[in-house]
Amino acid sequence: MACRCPSCIALLLGLFVLACSPNPELPPRPPDAGRRTEICDNGRDDDGDLKADCADPDCFAAPECLSDFEICGNFIDDDGDGKVDCADSDCEGSPACSEHCDNGFDDDNDGLVDCADPDCVGNLACSGTEICGNGRDDDEDGLVDCRDPDCGADPSCLRIETNCTDSADDDLDGKIDCEDPDCAQDAACRGPETDCANGVDDDGDGRTDCKDSDCQDYPGCIPDEVCDNGQDDDRDGATDCLDSDCAGHPTCPQSEICDNGADDDGDGKVDCLDLDCIDDPVCPKESNCTNGLDDDGDGLIDCLDPDCSGQSACGSESNCGDGIDNDADQMTDCADPD
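Above: the chain's sequence. Below: its structure in token form.
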């Protein structure tokens, strides 16, 4: 029967060829992918798991893959004796199988951790002494590292008190602020200015010697009295000319000037009220020694005024029983020493 559709036949042939051609996008199959067991000494990946020969777990127990000795850290029973790594006697003494005595792990797989392992006998971490930088309480006294007195001299713990006023034990030596010798030279911990003439700021307050208020009573720091500034410069309670330091000073005359309205000699009495002026012409005398008046304004009346000394009216009490103050001394009869 003749083909009525030659083009259809060509299309079918093309599809057949395409279906039977290898797909360029798919990876080639391993040549031995069909084999299910790894041959352990032919250098090929026989079972298609991308691991060849002794690298394939299928070959771990194969005679050709067994080592004479155990490799002590690869998690493989290299010598095929049923013991892996540190559990194998071949690994005894291997660094990989030594117990590290302060890491909390059973490094040698003997079921004993750190100091519980006999391997750690004599190790510092198991000696009851604090190790000063491992973050653990090695001697089990409740104090860790530098907080333990065992570490007082350890270089890693030799710190200083950094703040002498924060009420904290900055260097963990049990001494706080000024109690710590580290603060001996800190300004906050110094005492008063101890030497007021050494040119040194002993108490660290920025003021030296007499400039420091601590030295205000030091003899070498007390100033002399300035005799005309109205101040008690030497702090002795006496001001200007009233201070004995001003005796003989030009501004402090020895006697009262009797008509200038000033207390020139600093005795608290001005002009004629001062006894220095008793004979000065500008100062009137008590003119009447029996009138009961202070004629000269010196505060002394009649016979009480030295001006009346020797006056007949100011003689002795002439009659000691007449009830009269005969000598005007304000004492009558027997009350008068006369």
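The chain has a mean pLDDT of 77.
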